[in-house]
Amino acid sequence: MSGRIRTGELLTDDRGRIAQLHGIGIQRVGSYWYAWGEDKSAGDRFAAVACYRSTDLTDWEYLGDALTAGIGDLAPDRIVERPKALRRSDGRWVLIAHIESADYSDARVGYAVADDPHGPFEYLGSERPLGNLSRDIGVYQEGGVGYLLSEDRDNGLHIYRLRPDYCGVESIVATLRQQDRPEIGYESPTLIRHDDLYYLFGSDLTGWDLNDNKYASAPALEGPWSPWQDFAPAGSRTFDSQVSVVLPVEGAHVYIGDRWNRDDLASSAPVWLPLRVEKGRAELIWRDDWSIEELKK
After folding, report:
1. Number of Cβ within a 10 Å radius of residue 175
2. What gap in Å lies between CA 88 and CA 48, rounded to an integer?
3. What is the β-pairing status of strands 137-142 and 93-100?
4. How confident is the model at residue 2 (pLDDT cuts 50, 70, 90)?
5. Residue 296 predicted with pLDDT over 80
6. Backbone φ, ψ for residue 286 (5° rounding)
7. Helix/strand/coil (H, E, C) string of the chain?
């Protein structure tokens, strides 16, 4: 891609294939960005969690499958979504994902561990955190503490503190709900901290259909959290995308979302755009063509 990001165009890897980075998770390790994504070659059923790396966020090297189909939670008739990874203080990696049955009745979160970011990861099993439903997930890490963001259809969007080994939850830090529908929260959550404020982003519960995603801010993870509001123009359906992560890049921020093509999920296009974050406000900025270097200026 020669350092240019063309919004809504498919990412390809060093093999010339579509990068299977749907529902992306991403972390910086030294000079590389490592990314994990849903391999949608089998549609909505589990094929693998693919791992890639890049030095510039535009040219991607395929490193193999970090997690592959097998039995139990990882059987090929199952659903594994939103793979996110965290590095523990002991140097090991924990891959966390939404684990689901074909009818979406399981609502669990699964954990796997590896010595390297590209795996292979050893799957440990899944849970309903503290007995709660868990569908779309995100992760956050600060000061050696890991957090799980998890959508619970019965109670709202939870921020959990993870156990020290990151392979389970130990407590609820906060639960957020929608203003107009207080019985539910938002899904596909992602969290950042900027200038002493936390910003939590999420998508409304509309399945494969897109919607105006929202964000809230707070001085502490426990709250108080501001009312939810749009960060893209109202009615744009977040520029026809669903948030997956907001990525800090040297003081700036990149929004990474998905345009789900339910008839060909493997070819669902990503949407990468600059996100302006300052003084409690977040604003998604449309660009047809842009670069990370321009973002830093």
Report:
1. 16
2. 23
3. unpaired
4. low
5. no
6. -75, 130
7. CCCCEECCCCCEECCCCECCCEEEEEEEECCEEEEEEEECCCCCCCCEEEEEEECCCCCEEEEEEEEECCCHHHCCCCEEEEEEEEECCCCCEEEEEEEECCCCCCCEEEEEEECCCCCCCEEEEEECHHHCCCCCEEEEEECCEEEEEEEECCCEEEEEEECCCCCCEEEEEEEECCCCCCCCCCEEEEEEEECCEEEEEEECCCCCCCCCCEEEEECCCCCCCCCCEECCCCCCHHHHCEEEEEEEECCEEEEEEEECCCCCHHHCEEEEEEEEEECCEEEECCCCEECHHHHHC
Q: Is the pLDDT of residue 293 over 90?
A: no
C-alpha–C-alpha distance, residues 240 and 234, integer Å: 11
pLDDT tens digits for 153-169? 999 999 999 999 999 99
Domain that holds residue 40: 5-296
Read off the pLDDT of residues 20-30 as tens digits, 9 standing for 90 and up. Answer: 999 999 999 99
Residue 24's CATH number:
2.115.10.20
Rounded to whole angstroms, the Cα distance separating 92 from 85 reads 10
What are the C-alpha distances in Å from 164 to residues 121, 275, 295?
A: 19, 32, 35
How confident is the model at residue 183, as a pLDDT?
86
Domains: count for the chain: 1
Give the C-alpha separation, 51 to 21, whole Å: 8
